[in-house]
Design brief:
Blueprint (H helix, E strand, L loop, with lengths): L1 E10 L2 E11 L4 E5 L6 H9 L6 E6 L2 E2 L14 E4 L11 H6 L7 H14 L15 H14 L4 E5 L7 H18 L2 E6 L2 H7 L2 E6 L2 E6 L1 H6 L4 H5 L5 E5 L2 E5 L4 E3 L7 E4 L2 E6 L4 E7 L2 E7 L8 E6 L5
Parallel strand pairs: 3-8, 3-9, 6-7, 7-8
Antiparallel strand pairs: 1-2, 1-4, 4-5, 9-10, 11-12, 13-18, 14-18, 15-16, 16-17
Helix pairs in contact: 3-4
Length: 314
Amino acid sequence: MLQVKKVSLSYASNPVVKNVSLNLKTGERLVILGASGCGKTTLLKAIAGYHPITKGIIEFNEEKILDPTQQLVPGHSQIKLVNQDFKLDDYHTVEENIRLKLLLFDKIYLKLRVEELLKLTELEEHRNSKAKNLSGGQKQRLAIARALADEPDLLLLDEPFNQLDYHLKHKIESYILAYLSKYNISSILVSHNGEEAMRWANKIAFMKKGKIVRVGSSNNFYNNPQNKYEAGFFGSINTILINKKEVSFRPHHYSITKTNEHTLNIQIISHSKINKGWYQEYLFIVGKRIIKFYSKTDLTNLNEIWIKPILFNF
């Protein structure tokens, strides 16, 4: 469906994306994950047809995507981008912003669809407000509603939930995931949050300094990271010394056991505990050192523990 072939992108002649290749099948959900400034957003804009391509080619349904230098009006009719610029019609109302994307549909469907999207994004009471008067979070919700109204073949999302509260984020996220599955719509989500990526992705492309350094499943990234930097994107890790060697593992990847050569002994002089939801963060004072340790097991009443971890292979 989508093929990105050895694409390089620049800003003011400065390379931002370097020789990237990706492919996406119909109905597949890809997450491009990486730190801020690594080129994720620029790549997404190029896929949508909004950023000039320095080198390479992007094809959608076996046709070349034209960049802004090759067409009068940038973009692609079947690819919709929700980005951090929102791209709203500021002087139209919330309802009008959604209606404008549905003018080709019959009036009954148009009305029902507008109401469905207003309810989903909790913008019903703002339907008559002009877009320019909305808060940042409300604008973000409206941008999502407009993108879904178009019923795209490919939905591109650039950190679309970063201004939404927890309740609304998960409500809209669940709706979009169900909608994509129901209609077999492909999507690409750009994120710097590994836990979000694991909820969304059929596959993840990990990006660093303008390059895709690894493509794999959520399970592989979580359980088999290639290095400590990558591991940190997908949740908390313990990093401790065993036999003078630094090793890392997840909060649930260890057991408490008797002493042997594969364990670490911690004699707990004192500690503090912070609840992190399904696990706790402990600060142990061991000798003259402070150890930060994440555990799914309550260690509050223990004075000494022998830990046998399942280690990462890096």
